[in-house]
Amino acid sequence: MLAGMPMIVVGADTLAGESILAQARPTEREVRVFVTDEPKAQHLKSLGYKVATGDVSDESHVEGAALHCFSAVLIAEAATDDRERSFADTPENVLQGWARAVANAGVRRVIWVTDEEIPETVVPEVAAVKPDDPDLPSRVIALDNASSLP
User: Fold this and answer.
1) Is residue 93 part of a domain?
2) Are the C-beta atoms of 36 and 55 separated by less than 8 Å?
3) Per residue in 72-94, pLDDT tens?
4) Residue 108: which domain range?
């Protein structure tokens, strides 16, 4: 991970998010998480993560949580699973909202975890990793640590 550069994982309360967090240690740098599940939020907070809890479709809340982060890991499953989403009517609108939120927050690098087409993301560096990749956590961390993305 780029030393001192904060990252945020949106959808950290998914299986993919939990596997990524197992390698993204908050002792090495500031790691923020955006989750919906309150018990998971409390657990992650006790492990040293900075936690934002709320509706993943609340674009302004995601933007605020991502403010001053260097990188964002956006896990598309959180836009399609069974959690409540009150601010967007489709998964596509949730993902588009995240893309706007991280751009407005000044994020420099976005790593999408999805097997769908990613929405236009107007940040300097964008990559995608498939959620069924057996090396998902390692690939996300390697992309996050890279000096630049291809």
Assistant:
1) yes
2) yes
3) 999 999 999 999 999 999 999 99
4) 7-145
Alpha helix stretches (DSSP H) within the chain = 15-21, 38-46, 59-66, 91-104, 136-145
Residue 104: inside a domain, yes or no?
Answer: yes
Domain count, the chain: 1
Give residue-wise pLDDT tens across range 82-131: 999 999 999 999 999 999 999 999 999 999 999 999 999 999 999 999 99
Choose among 145, 143, 149: nearest CA to 130: 143
Q: Using alpha carbons, select from 31, 27, 32, 88 the residue that is nearest to residue 56.
A: 88
User: What would the two tokens of residue 87 be?
Assistant: 């601010």
pTM: 0.95
- What six digits make up the tokens of 59? 């674009």
Read off the CATH number of the domain in which 140 is found. Answer: 3.40.50.720
150 in a domain, yes or no?
no
pLDDT at 9 over 60: yes
